[in-house]
Design brief:
EC 1.1.1.22, N-(1-d-carboxylethyl)-l-norvaline Dehydrogenase, domain 2, 13% strand, Rossmann fold, UDP-Glc/GDP-Man_DH_N, seven-stranded mixed β-sheet, binds uridine-5'-diphosphate-glucuronic acid
């Protein structure tokens, strides 16, 4: 069967590459000629571990191709996967322009019966609308059907998440579509949940929003832990042994980012509101996350009063490790606030600097290593738990910083370790360690004693 994938972002490109890996013939369509040439050479336009190898291997084997010629690609396709973006509109609703652009190209060009498979995250009911549109507009007397097939891959682990997915969800309205999709996915040997289109669309939102809720819940418990002298890391560990809770997504931090959770929580909330229903848990999830982003900034402000003229080291820029994606990364608004306060910023990230430079080309300095970042700094903020940052010994902060005061938004260090060091360490859901401050006080006392 001939498979065409529209869109070569995280969802489209990984879907296409992985389907070719299990033996299908796949053509990926994109509008950007340069991108297409790059992909033909096995170079992925997005940073995603393992993807370059997949592109090269399957392109060389003749199973995976890339083109800007959508007319030819759609003409005789049996299946067309739509994996284009559905960004957030200003009011929180999902923007479906890219999806419908692809639909227009499909109806203008298909000459064979085909199944259009929507992988993009779309509001509940959209697949029905897409089918209505396609059936109404299609030329050439072709039979088109639509199936929902939401994607659950995470950035940074997209290839593994796809090749070893925990489940595949297919939303279909006919046996024919179900049989075809089961055939497509046979090679993965993964559990398939078959349901109707609206339930499939809802499974995607409910899954992402539940994970976001889990994070916001842990962030709130973390904030309360600080007030009552509990330690969120131990609390999460203690909870994780209960299989009903599980041990994933219990990490408190400075909030979730990325291209999915912020957008999908707002989209579902908007959708329910539009029907006159308030999703209270989702509303709270969004509010808690918004507040959490600035938690460490507020603590730094409380401690210093003014941050004007202070040298601030920023470690980690991307919304999570393993990706160069900065969408909704907490680093971006925090850097804005720090700059507005008059701080001087030096920033480091193992892969995110080029993208960050597009947002802050000249207002901050960029460093090549964590060590260079920390040199003579008054404060360090950790926004992403990259291995290069987590594995940095605390003695480096002690030795290189002017005043070793650390605000760690990802709990990279164990409290026990920080207590053994001459640092001040603020983290999430754990009592601050103020060894450096104590040391300073002692020094002052000694100076006074000597002076007397
Ligand atoms: C998320 C989902 O995990 C995927 O299943 C889904 O397919 C994808 O969205 C999507 O809809 O396309 P992703 O946004 O790539 O994937 O990243 P996650 O690993 O889920 O992390 C999202 C954010 O949550 C990150 O900022 C991360 O730092 C934060 N997070 C994650 C926490 O703060 N605590 C945790 O315990 C886990």
């Amino acid at each position: 069967m001939k498979i065409v994938v529209a869109g070569t972002g995280y969802v489209g490109l990984v879907t296409g590459a992985c389907l070719s890996e299990i033996g299908h013939n796949v053509t990926c369509v994109d509008i950007d000629k340069n991108k297409v040439e790059m992909m033909k050479q096995g170079i992925s336009p997005i940073y995603e571990p393992g993807l370059d190898e997949l592109l090269k291997r399957n392109h060389d084997a003749g199973r995976l191709d890339f083109t800007i010629d959508y007319r030819n690609a759609y003409k005789d396709a049996d299946l067309i996967f739509i994996g284009v973006g559905t960004p957030e509109r200003e009011d929180g609703s999902a923007n479906l322009d890219y999806v419908f652009n692809v639909c227009k190209q499909i109806v203008d060009n298909v000459k064979n019966d085909c199944l259009v498979v929507v992988k993009s995250t779309v509001p509940i009911g959209t697949n029905d609308k897409i089918e209505e549109y396609l059936k109404e507009k299609v030329k050439n007397n072709v039979n088109i059907e639509v199936a929902s097939n939401p994607e659950f891959l995470a950035q940074g682990t997209a290839v593994v998440d796809t090749l070893y997915a925990k489940r595949i969800v297919i939303g279909v309205e006919s046996k024919k579509a179900e049989v075809l999709l089961r055939e497509v996915y046979k090679g993965y040997n993964q559990p398939i949940v078959a349901t109707n289109r609206r339930s499939a669309e809802m499974i995607k939102y409910a899954s992402n929003d539940f994970l976001a809720l889990k994070i916001s819940f842990m962030n709130e418990i973390a904030n309360f832990c600080e007030m009552v002298g509990a330690d969120i890391e131990d609390v999460a560990k203690g909870m994780s042994f209960d299989p009903r809770i599980g041990d994933k997504f219990l990490n408190a931090g400075i909030g979730y980012g990325g291209s999915c959770f912020p957008k999908d929580t707002k989209a579902l909330h908007w959708l329910a509101n539009d029907r006159g229903y308030e999703l209270k848990t989702i509303k709270a999830t969004i509010e808690v996350n918004e507040n959490q982003k600035y938690k460490l900034f507020r603590q730094a402000k409380n401690r210093f009063g003014s941050l004007k003229g202070l040298k601030v080291a920023v470690l980690g820029l991307t919304f999570k490790p393993g990706t160069d994606d900065l969408r909704e990364a907490p680093s971006i608004p925090n850097v804005r606030r720090l700059l507005d306060e008059g701080a001087q910023i030096v920033a480091y990230d193992p892969v995110g600097i080029d993208n960050f430079k597009r947002i802050y080309p000249s207002e901050i300095t960029y460093a090549n290593t964590p060590e260079e970042t920390l040199k003579d700094a008054d404060i360090a903020f950790i926004f992403t738990e990259w291995n290069e940052i987590k594995s940095l010994n605390l003695s480096v902060y002690e030795e290189l910083m002017y005043t070793p005061i650390i605000f760690d938004g990802r709990n990279c260090y164990k409290i026990k370790e920080t207590k053994e060091r001459n640092v001040d360490y603020y983290s999430i859901g754990r009592k601050a360690v103020l060894n450096f401050e104590k040391h300073l006080e002692k020094e002052k006392e000694m100076e006074v004693a000597i002076g007397q």
